[in-house]
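ok so I'm stuck.
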Amino acid sequence: MRVTPLGDRVLVKTRHEEEVTEHGIVLPDTVEKEKKAEGEVVAIGNGGKVTKLNLKVGDVVLFEKWGGEEVEIDKVEHKILDQEKILAIIQK
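replied:
not stuck anymore, here's the structure
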């Protein structure tokens, strides 16, 4: 299935990483933890504000964890985010 976000929105495939203490205890997602998440840009809308971010498909970005709309595409979790919810591009 192909999904193209409208306007100043970006479709991101989310990445989930569990936080583990040094003793091997897995910490669940809670409100107290930092509210940011990571994902890969899958599609970009054609709005004027989002084009100024210079994003491209394949970029890995940090975004507000509780922002955007969660959608499932081909049994994979994605988020549709407004451009202001994207915080940074991760460069490796």
